[in-house]
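Figure 2 data, in text form.
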Amino acid sequence: MPIQTMKGALRALLLVAIFFAGVWSHSSGLIDDFLWYLPDVQYLMGEHLWLTALSGSLAIAVAIPLGILLSRPSMARWPNR
């Protein structure tokens, strides 16, 4: 079977799977529940992004100067363990 035919078949299978996932989520009430809790989801997503950005920034602010300091020749006197 040629590669192009295989890619087309996989693409069609993926589209069918996405369609049935949408049908299932609608019939199970998942979409209605998500829309009901949308303000909470948006608030918690904002909190998550804020905490992630803050902790990442603090890690970078500590790690870069520490890495530069430890890579200097004057720090070679400290033995590697």
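Caption note: Helices lie at 3-27, 30-36, 38-70.
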